[in-house]
Write a structure and sequence with these properties.
15 strands; about 325 residues
Length: about 325
């Protein structure tokens, strides 16, 4: 089969489409013919040599989410049959013509989603659902601040906050992305540059002086102490990423008195490094609580752009995501019906 291969650590130019062995399903696993795959910032870091895949995933084939059709099943698989449309997350290897996944790591694609729309769903909605509904215990009527509102996770989070009966606010580098996020349910937002001080006054205005119940931080770095200041007493900050540069987003200084005085909860989370059983749990929760809302049209995928499965196009897809101009998901079209 053909796969998107990292030939060596570096820029987008190190990516190439090459022939590799087609993975075969073991007893409890399913072989999926991949039609489309989402591109994530973790793929950019892995390409650069900073974020290796888990030991059970291909180290040189990118891709953490996919949408496709069941091609074959292992001898003990009971949940799926060839021909079913499925999507899901994986530790790697999704940007290839075929992938093998555990049967409990798959969810059925709603009939109203195209392949490309389906590929824009798993990573962002599973991440946002787990962070907000599970880890933060988001309740109806609460106020939520979401950083990087124009990202795939940010747009999924806005919708899930609304679906929970809570109120979402957001930040972005540009006012354009704030405006584009409003149709997804964003109550209000503000554009921020390197100066985060205006956020404090704005947060007080948005929440009537109370502060936010939940802050979803997809940036890291100086956004963390700013988020802590913006929280209400007993508020929860969920940190999912540090996109402020390879090291710039990973380190910051915080005032512990803010944590103590407000009795705050700080929760860090990643999906990729979790055990199989943990990943199965978040996938099953997504299947039960999010997929029906997608099928009903109450939640929607957001595709920024689509690229063909050629070296030139895949390299262009990486440059598009690195530009920080994208709004929603960048999709790679692996196969055609």
């Amino acid at each position: 089969m053909k796969a998107n291969i990292i030939t060596k650590p570096g820029g987008p130019e190190v990516l190439d489409i090459r022939e590799v062995p087609t993975p075969q399903p073991s007893p409890h696993r399913v072989q999926v013919r991949v039609y489309a795959a989402g591109l994530n910032r973790a793929d950019l870091l892995q390409r650069q040599g900073y974020y290796p895949a888990p030991p059970d995933a291909p180290q040189d084939i990118l891709g953490m989410e996919f949408a496709g059709e069941v091609a074959a099943v292992g001898a003990h698989v009971q949940m799926w049959q060839p021909g079913q449309r499925v999507f899901g997350i994986a530790g790697g290897g999704c940007q290839a013509e075929y992938i093998v996944a555990h049967e409990r790591m798959l969810a059925e694609i709603p009939a109203n989603l195209s392949w490309n729309e389906a590929a824009a769903v798993p990573e962002v909605f599973i991440t946002a659902h787990d962070a907000l509904w599970k880890l933060a215990g988001l309740a109806s009527g609460e106020n939520v601040l979401i950083h990087a509102i124009g990202s795939g996770v940010g747009l999924a989070a806005v919708q899930l906050v609304r679906a929970r009966g809570a109120v979402p606010y957001g930040t972005s580098r540009t006012q354009e992305k704030i405006e584009r996020a409003r149709p997804f349910g964003l109550q209000d937002g503000m554009a921020l540059t390197d100066n985060l001080q205006p956020l404090q006054e704005q947060s007080q205005q948005w929440t009537g002086g109370r502060g936010f119940d939940v802050v979803l931080d997809l940036v890291g770095g100086s956004y963390v102490p700013a988020g802590l200041e913006a929280l209400a007493t007993k508020g929860r900050l969920v940190l999912l990423a540090s996109i402020g540069g390879r090291t710039g987003g990973r380190k910051t200084e915080i005032d512990f008195s803010v944590l103590l005085r407000k009795r705050l909860h700080v929760i860090g989370s990643v999906l990729r490094g979790r055990t199989l059983e943990e990943k199965v749990a978040v996938t099953q929760a997504f299947t039960a609580e999010v997929v029906p809302l997608l099928a009903q049209g109450k939640l929607r995928a957001t595709v920024d752009s689509e690229f063909d499965f050629t070296p030139k196009d895949i390299q262009a897809a990486h440059r598009r995501l690195e530009s920080n101009q994208s709004f929603g998901k960048v999709i790679i079209k692996i196969a055609r019906e």
